[in-house]
Inverse folding.
């Protein structure tokens, strides 16, 4: 049987790897088109609906990780802290974006995530951030994961792996047991993919002449 997908110019590979659901979706589309008297002989662009949700997720990740990365550069350029940034998001709206302030506050706990959670709580007037997500330029450390849990944030997306920060001289390791513990407590923790991870990982190399270790 010839699938409608074949008529729409989709490659054989796509056809073979997207067997059933695309066909059903196409048929639905064709039925709708028929009812609307749409010209089905018109050329149709290659199907993108299967990629769309993932691409949308990656775009969203990139948007907020890029903001966190921008915060990381601000921390070192202004001399107030180390190259780490974090953004708290509610729905699709940014609540706050912050960076590391350990030097400005003379406070070793003033990590970007801690600062962002404190600011978000103040701004929203509550200590329960269960309707928020946090985007961090780098994988959060155990201290930050602890506060993320206390604030009831349910989703953490980070750009660079902690190992990259560690290689740059920071106390960056996060034991797997910590990650597993927080995942089991219901927090989604994952690294952003593609370009978002790349721009986050290059922060340390690009800012190495500007940040200080002490
Ligand atoms: Zn931290």
């Amino acid at each position: 049987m010839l699938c409608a997908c074949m008529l729409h110019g989709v490659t054989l590979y796509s056809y073979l790897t997207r067997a059933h659901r695309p066909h059903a979706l196409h048929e639905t589309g064709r039925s709708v088109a028929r009812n609307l008297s749409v010209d089905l002989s018109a050329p149709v662009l290659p199907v993108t609906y299967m990629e769309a949700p993932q691409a949308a997720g990656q775009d969203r990740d990139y948007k907020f990780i890029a903001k966190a990365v921008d915060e990381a550069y601000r921390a070192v350029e202004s001399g107030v802290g180390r190259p780490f940034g974090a953004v708290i998001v509610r729905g699709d709206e940014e609540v706050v974006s912050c960076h590391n302030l350990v030097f400005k506050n003379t406070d070793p706990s003033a990590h970007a995530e801690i600062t962002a959670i404190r600011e978000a709580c103040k701004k929203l007037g509550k200590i329960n951030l269960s309707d928020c997500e946090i985007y961090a330029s780098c994988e959060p450390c155990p201290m930050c994961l602890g506060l993320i849990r206390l604030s009831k944030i349910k989703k953490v997306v980070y750009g660079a792996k902690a190992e990259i920060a560690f290689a740059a001289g920071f106390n960056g390791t996060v034991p797997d047991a910590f990650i597993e513990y927080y995942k089991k407590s219901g927090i989604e923790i994952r690294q952003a993919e593609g370009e978002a991870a790349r721009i986050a990982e290059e922060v340390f190399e690009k800012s190495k002449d500007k940040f200080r270790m002490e």
Notes: The chain has a mean pLDDT of 80. Strands lie at 85-90, 93-99, 132-138, 155-160, 188-191.
